[in-house]
Amino acid sequence: MGSAKNSSNASRKARIEEMRRAEQARERRNRILTVAASVVVVAGLVVGAVVLVQSQSDDDSGTAADGKSAGHFVTGSDGVKTWKGTLGRTHVTKTVKYPTEPPVGGDHNQVWMNCNGDVYTKELNNMNAVHSLEHGAVWVTYTGKAKKADVDALAAKVKQTPYTLMSPDDKQKDPIMLTAWGVQRTVKSASDPDVGKFFEKFVQGKQTPEPGAACTGGLAQ
Predict the structure, then answer these.
(1) What's the chain's Rg over C-alpha atoms?
(2) Whole-model pTM over 0.90
(3) What architecture (CATH level 2) is domain 64-202?
């Protein structure tokens, strides 16, 4: 029994190290692309002017429903709710009204929230957090009804786990919820065994649209 557990821990550590290496490689590629982009800055300014006009037109519409995220939840025997339908993945500037709280995906802001074990004490902009989900992060959220001991224990777990983030969300219906791209569940407490199961399955899990994408270099509130 002990050897099997050690093997699982070793496998998880190797997986996390592999994700870190992938993230570092991606960041290096991004720096190279940034330098290359400066060569065509004049053309970029021209295009940017056109985009700005379009963006201002979009922003005038205010809050918009995420029409690309049509569907509904189906709850599995394990208590995990899976979104059945489509989830938009377009980068937008206008505010998106998501059909769930917290959202499990959909159109989002082009900048993600840092999700390298980041614990936030204020509510997040859903549009930035959804981008973190797209990168394979698990998002832990809680309301004022959650026990302080549970919040502290979950924060400690998040801080030790790359590709996770945590924040309060008093708009959600349950005290503690776990969310990844396209999936979500409620847990009773920090000691609920379903917490570990959710992390194990969905941190950089198969549901991830952009596996290995950065969880640093975004917003840090």
Answers:
(1) 19
(2) no
(3) 3-Layer(aba) Sandwich (3.40)
